[in-house]
Every structure is written in structure tokens, then in C-alpha cells.
Specification:
Elements (H helix, E strand, L loop, with lengths): L5 H9 L3 H9 L49 H13 L1 H21 L5 E14 L9 E19 L4 H68 L4 H36 L3 H4 L22 H4 L1 H22 L4 E12 L11 E10 L7 H67 L5 H35 L28
Antiparallel strand pairs: 1-2, 2-3, 3-4
Helix pairs in contact: 3-5, 4-5, 5-6, 5-9, 5-11, 6-11, 9-10, 10-11
């Protein structure tokens, strides 16, 4: 007897009841899409940086001209550190492993969309007992041998698209995993750049503080000699000693921050601490990039955390659809073809062949609210995902506005600080000259000195703040994060492989 094909099996089982054909057609329906609820977006940003005519033709000034974004700062040392981070950081390796797991789960979730095939072979020996005795261990009948080999195929009709929806959910979760890794890249690279800038800032501040310490020490020696000669008050010497001690305390605090920053860089880059301690670079050599933020709506496509929240939302919606589909019955089609005989030698003879066809319909009549509860839980999880997505969008808008404001006002602050430093330098020169002429007391010189030291220390800190604002703006705008492991999809609409094959 010839073995029927699987399509013949479907046709045969489709004739069993008329309802089966109706459910089969209904099973071809695709899961309904879920429109992403987008919060209202502004038409423009409040603080848009003006285009500097001197840099308008500079290709290195645009964040899109160089990929990745940190190269716009113009530091080869930072480029090397970022490459080491992406290659060796354990959190990125862990995220890559989680992404692989999500992709494997997506492949597993696609398996119910296709028929399953299994091979079963068995050999059984049996003997009947003697009917004339009550002893269970008394056997007098012949030993019967039965050998069977069969090939069976089974397939569940995807009524209401439940299996397809579960496959889509797994695909969205895999996409969310890819975007989680991109978000991690996005965050860690910004943290490393900020730590490197902090290291260079501390390097500059330490150099300025050491120069100030040397100058203050010389002034203290001069004041002590003048006290010994009776030309200065002991109070002047004590005040200068206070200035020297304050600079020493400031240097100690900087040394602590310097070592902590080196430890952070070593952890982020995966380099030994001794190698990180030899890093070269200067704060003044870093380039402030010119960043044009574009339109607010571009955040939805560029920021990986927003797209991750959207993928999570779509996965929650697919989970809700799958939960609703459990209200309807499941239909299982099974076909079996094989051979069965009393001896292995006659197993494949035509007389030993057999085949079976079956169809089963299973429906839950009462489960004490379990199915309804699962639907309500899935609906609640989708609402939470909607709120999380909207929060991600609003947080992104806030991040951009905050950093745009920081870029603008820190530039103004640096201009004012430069004027203040020039004035403090001139004040120190005049106070020292007038003190030597006997026109002012030494307290005036000390005040001018403290003012100059303070403004000199503020200069690299404001420069650090401006660079951090640029990094924050890159991060807020989504940054150019390389992702070599997977191509960038055009939209968040993952589909199962050959979804048409999931339904007849």
C-alpha cells in the first residue's frame, strides 16, 4: 500500500468534519499588528547650536562624518581605548551571549510552524501464562516476538495564528537583545570617553597646582625672611602657610581622583593598570565637535534604548495575542506509516505494512480562570511596556535638551572664565608690584594669589564640562554605535521564516 503524502493527510483530515475546514481557513489569518503609541514630539529643539562659519566646511566637525563618534574628539589614544573596550569588556561579552540565547530561542519558537517527523522502532517478546494455575510465575505458552518500525508525522493547525505569534514574540525578543547590546555599547563608550577626559583634566589641574605650589612655596620663604628682618608681620607668614597647606590638600585630593580614574579606565578598557598609567594625551589637544542635532523625531530611529523599548512592547503585544489564542481549540493532525511483524526477517514484506491517520481537537472547557488570568496578565504587561516606551522617548527628549543647553551655556561660561582668568592674572601682577612699592599690604597680595589659583583651576574643569556635554549630546542623540554582528533592520517587524508554511 503506498504511503500517503502529508498534503493528502491534510486533505483527508480536512474532510472529517466540516468545522475543520472552517478552522483551517481561519488559521491562515495573520496576527494583527500593534501601532506603537508615540508621545507628542516637539517640532524643534530649544537650544540649537549655531553653525560656526570657520568650521562649516570641516569634515571632522560633523558627527556623521566619522564613524564611530568618539573619533570626532581627535584622540588616537581614546580610539585605542574604545576599541579595547568593545573587544574585551565582560559586560559586552555577556550581552553577546544573551543575544545568542535570544536568537536560539527564536529559532526554537519557529519549530511548531512546521511538521515534526519521528522514527520509532521496537522489538517486543511476550509469553502467556498457563491458565490452569494461579502462580504468576507459571508460563507455558510460546514466546511471541513482535517487531515494529514506523515513521510518523504530526502537525498542529495554527488556529488563530498562536504559533506564528509566539514565533514573532521570540523574534522581537531577539531584536530587543540586539538593541540591548547596542545600548550597552552606547553607554560604555560614553563612560570611557568621559573617564579619559577626566584623566586629562586631572593631569592639567595637577600640573597647574604643582606650579602654584612652587610659587606659593617661594613666596612663603620670602615672607619668612621678611618676618625675620622685621619687614613683615608673622600673620603674613601664617596666611601664606595656610595657602601652601591648602594647595597641598588640593594636590592630595587630585592624586586620589587620578588613581581612581586610572582604575576605572583599566576596568573599562581591559588594559593592565600599569599600561593605563602611561597613557598620553592633553586636554587642550582634544577637539570640540560641532554637533547638529537634527529633528526630534530622528531619536526614534537612532537611539537604541528607544528601539529596544519598542521591540519589548511588540513582544508583549505578541504574547497577549498568543494568550488570547488559547481560548480556542487546538487541532493536531498525525500520520504514521510503518511495518509490523512477528519476525525481523519479514518486517519489510508488503503484508507487514500499515498506516494510520488521525486528527484530534482539544478544547479547554473549564480551568478555574487560568486562561482568562493569563490574558489579563499579558494585557497588564503590554500596558507596562507601553508606559516604558513612552518614558524612554520622553527621557531621550530631556537628555537632548539638557545637553544642548549645557553645550550652549558652558561655551558662554568658558568665555567668561577666560576673561576672569585674564583679570586675575593682571590683579596678581598689580598687587605684587604695589606691595613691593609699599602701597598695599601683603593681605592684598594673598587675596590676588588665591583668586588667580582658583580661576586657573576652573579653566580645565570648564573645558572638561564642555567635552562631557558634547559626549552627552552624542549619547542623547543615539551616537553612531558599530554593530558588526547583525545588519540594521529597516523596521521592527521581525517575521518567522517562511510564515506561509505555518498554515495550509
Amino acid at each position: 500500500m503506498p504511503m500517503p503524502s502529508f498534503l493528502s493527510l491534510l486533505r483527508l483530515c480536512g474532510r472529517i468534519p466540516a468545522l475543520l475546514g472552517v478552522l483551517t481557513v481561519a488559521g491562515c489569518l495573520s496576527p494583527e499588528p500593534f501601532p506603537t503609541p508615540r508621545p507628542p514630539l516637539p517640532d524643534h529643539w530649544t537650544h540649537v547650536p549655531p553653525i560656526d562659519p570657520a568650521r562649516s566646511n570641516d569634515p571632522a566637525a560633523s558627527p556623521r562624518a566619522i564613524d564611530p563618534w568618539w573619533r570626532t574628539l581627535g584622540s588616537p589614544t581614546l580610539d585605542t581605548l574604545e576599541s579595547d573596550l568593545l573587544a574585551h569588556h565582560p559586560d559586552i561579552a555577556s550581552a553577546a551571549a544573551r543575544l545568542d540565547q535570544a536568537r536560539i530561542r527564536a529559532r526554537i519558537a519557529e519549530s511548531p510552524l512546521f511538521p515534526s517527523l519521528s522514527l520509532d522502532t521496537s522489538e517486543r517478546l511476550s509469553q502467556r501464562g498457563n491458565s490452569g494455575t494461579t502462580r504468576a510465575s507459571s508460563f507455558s505458552g510460546p514466546i511471541v516476538q513482535a517487531t515494529q518500525a514506523s515513521l510518523s508525522a504530526s502537525y498542529e493547525l495554527d488556529y488563530r495564528g498562536r504559533n506564528r505569534t509566539l514565533a514573532q514574540k521570540a523574534a522581537y525578543e531577539a531584536e530587543a537583545g540586539r538593541l540591548e547590546r547596542a545600548t550597552l555599547h552606547w553607554s560604555l563608550t560614553a563612560d570611557l570617553a568621559s573617564s579619559y577626559i577626566k584623566l586629562l583634566t586631572l593631569k592639567t589641574r595637577r600640573a597647574l597646582a604643582r606650579q602654584s605650589r612652587e610659587t606659593a612655596g617661594k613666596i612663603l620663604e620670602l615672607v619668612v625672611r621678611q618676618v625675620d628682618l622685621g619687614h613683615a608681620s608673622p600673620l603674613d607668614a601664617v596666611r601664606q602657610q595656610n595657602t601652601v597647606a591648602s594647595i597641598d590638600a588640593q594636590l592630595a585630593a587630585m592624586e586620589l581622583q587620578h588613581h581612581q580614574t586610572l582604575d576605572a579606565l583599566a576596568l573599562l578598557s581591559g588594559k593592565p593598570l600599569a599600561e593605563v598609567s602611561r597613557l598620553e594625551g592633553s586636554l587642550d589637544q582634544l577637539r570640540l565637535p560641532l554637533i547638529q542635532p537634527g529633528l526630534p523625531s530622528t531619536l526614534l530611529a537612532r537611539r537604541p534604548d528607544i528601539r529596544q523599548a519598542e521591540a519589548t512592547l511588540q513582544a508583549a503585544h505578541a504574547d497577549l495575542q498568543a494568550a488570547r489564542a488559547t481560548l480556542f481549540p487546538t487541532i493536531q493532525l498525525t500520520g504514521e506509516r510503518g511495518y509490523s511483524s512477528a519476525g525481523l526477517s519479514s518486517l519489510i514484506s508488503p503484508g507487514s505494512a500499515f498506516w494510520n491517520l488521525s486528527a484530534s481537537l482539544v478544547a479547554t472547557l473549564f480551568d478555574h480562570g487560568k486562561t482568562r488570568g493569563a490574558i489579563e496578565l499579558a494585557e497588564s504587561e503590554r500596558q507596562a511596556a507601553v508606559a516604558a516606551y513612552q518614558k524612554a522617548v520622553l527621557s531621550a527628549l530631556k537628555d537632548v535638551e539638557d545637553n544642548l543647553a549645557a553645550v550652549h551655556w558652558l561655551a558662554e561660561q568658558e568665555k567668561a572664565q577666560q576673561r576672569a582668568e585674564s583679570a586675575a592674572q593682571e590683579s596678581w601682577r598689580l598687587a605684587e608690584a604695589r606691595h613691593q612699592a609699599g602701597a598695599v599690604d601683603f593681605l592684598t597680595v594673598l587675596e590676588a594669589q588665591r583668586s588667580l589659583l582658583q580661576t586657573q583651576d576652573e579653566r580645565p574643569q570648564i573645558r572638561q564640562a564642555r567635552l562631557n556635554a558634547a559626549i552627552g549630546l552624542f549619547k542623547a542623540l543615539g551616537g553612531e554605535i558599530p554593530d558588526n554582528a547583525a545588519p540594521q533592520p529597516e523596521s521592527l517587524t521581525p517575521q518567522a521564516s517562511n510564515p506561509q508554511a505555518s498554515n495550509p
